[in-house]
Amino acid sequence: MTVGDNMNEIGRTFTSESVTQGHPDKVADIISDAILDAYMAQDKNSHVACETCVTTDFCMVFGEITSAAHISDDEIEKIIRDTIKEIGYDNPDLEFDGNTCEVENRLHEQSADINQGVDRGDEETGAGDQGMMFGFATNETDSLMPYPIDLARKLTNKLTELRESGEIPYLRPDGKAQVSVNYDKDGNVVSLDAVVLSTQHDETMSENQEQLKEDIREKLFKAVIPQELMTEDTKEHINPTGKFEIGGPHGDAGLTGRKIIVDTYGGYARHGGGAFSGKDCTKVDRSACYMARYIAKNIVASGLAEKCEIQLSYAIGVAEPTSVMVDTFGTGADIGDKSMEEIVRENFKLTPDGIIETLGLRDTSYKQTAKYGHFGIEGLPWEKTDKVEDLKKYIKN
Hints:
Helices cover 32% and strands 22% of the residues. The chain is of the alpha+beta class and 397 residues long. The two termini are 22 Å apart.
């Protein structure tokens, strides 16, 4: 996949967005995963489904937890407050302050009807819910992620870095980026059609947006965006409403799981509808999506395909997937008589227990995924490409 050949004719334009940690929905995701991490730290077999909602000076957690961990209501409140402050909401001027906001805890024990299908003692763990999950990989970036979401996420993560380091001192936690990428007819990235960046700021910049725009161009865009993709036709929109002083949960209510496209492939690949944050690894909404990404990434990294989408589906309480689908969009290598589905089943463990064992999901910190991104981030266990050599043997010479 080539990038930056501006002489190629544009075949299509695709757009993806990402948001910062301080976006209200991401605040909710991070809190839910912080609580999950606390339970998993004490009891790796915890069953957690923790939801969070936030609005002006208010946070509520609710959902179901079954665990041998002993975490008091006061400790839950401390986790919530510490997480909010860690994100950057530690100032009463923001109308959402981890030190003083109201916190309500409505967590309770998991339904016994669900638990009996998941926890089977010595038997294979059943899936925590029914549904279909997708994973995707493409060779258009080093991370094997689609270019639009890869670049949008780099922009929001760098924006957070500029705020936390104090390099741009007036920034506040809320923000988002949107990137429109031009592809040629062969699917190669040729240029950027548009870059949109909205960032919350303090009151000093409400009448000084030109300085803010200059800082964003110099310290963010030039640091992150490959300049060969910026052309005279690339449109830049920085704080297009004119100012962005009111933000975070005070500007808009936030809910866990409302950024499922940001959390995955930016709309470039299909999505089964399930959210991730606050869910333990027996819940295939989360773990099977991680496994599907792992499979797709290894298929692309091995050369079996240039682009690959995996679908897995499950029935609640049943260990084996009800279906496995592989789509290489016509980019697959010659593998002879074997189907891609057969290759996947031969090389990857697809039961909840097999997924958890393969990816080490009982020993993973999940708050980092809600903060920085679930896919395309080095160091996450489902991003490893340790199956490449095993898969290469299927390619016919």
